[in-house]
Sequence to fold (293 residues):
Amino acid sequence: MNLMCPARILLLPGDGQDAVVGERIAQVYAATFDASAGSRLAERLGVQLTVLPDLVQRPDAELQSIADLHRGETVVVLGVDLGLRLPAVVEHTGDGWSRVPTDNELTLAAYEQAAEKFRASIPSEANHDLIDLLAAAVEPGARVLELGSGTGRDAVALERRGFVVRRTDATEAFLEMIRADGHAADRLDAITDDFGGPYDAVFADAVFLHFDRAQLTGVLRKALRAAPVLAFSTKEGSGEEWSNRFLDLPRHFVMWQEQPLRDLLTATGWTVRDLVRSELPGGVWFQVLAVRA
Fold:
């Protein structure tokens, strides 16, 4: 059954105590064996928990009942396995439950289709402003996890400065590009995957601007566990936008003002050591160096 104004059902793993929910949640539902985790999450969100004993045995029917009850609202459900990678937002299509792509996944799809066009559209020089900040905080030989390596330009410059870089990206087209240039590269989705480590630093140039505020909160917490130093760049501005600039494909951007960005870093366990504004084509960027508080 299609709903005129369907509920958004956010499926989370039962052990997702670190899950960050970035929108208003109407209620939390959980299978019996995830009742404790559901109770903690509901308390944190300030909403009611409902435990559904039949959620595992009758997921389709139980989810449909939840959707019918919460039209136009967003709810969290713990403990149901639809064979999807979690976290996931699902909706009923008439033939069953399907995963709704997130803004970040749609952005990754744009990069998959236009990786070569992206490489041609950006400066060939690495972000030396950000690399200089990192070099002031860690010594040559330091192990650096690079999130969102993209075309690989920054990693080459980092290695020239003496750092040992683990190149990663969530876009297969960029990984193939990096490997074709003779470097190892690992698939890593900063939002959903574990970072491994420990490392001496995490480096992310023009990556965090694609994460919504809840996603970035989770990424910053994972980075804190992975390394004592974080160097990243993101764009100054207000709000969020979809843009077809450069690639002729939609990408989602999230801009930041300085104080809210500093507040988020503090809330996730970081201390800002340096924050530099860079005037670049297309706007102003923050170059940030933070250390574990």
About this structure: The chain has a mean pLDDT of 91.
